[in-house]
Amino acid sequence: MWLGFTASGGAGSHRAYSRRGEPTLLNFQNRNGKIKPYQARQLIAMIDKYENEL
Description:
Elements: E1 6-9, E2 14-18, E3 26-29, H1 37-50
């Protein structure tokens, strides 16, 4: 659990994470150890939003 997100599913190379009260679901697809650029932008937005909770 990081930034309050917990694993909420996924299959194959996909992993999904959710946070109570947060409407945005973080979904990551492993592509040779990297994630897609739009997924990185979503992650950075969540870090910025919840960084004070670290």
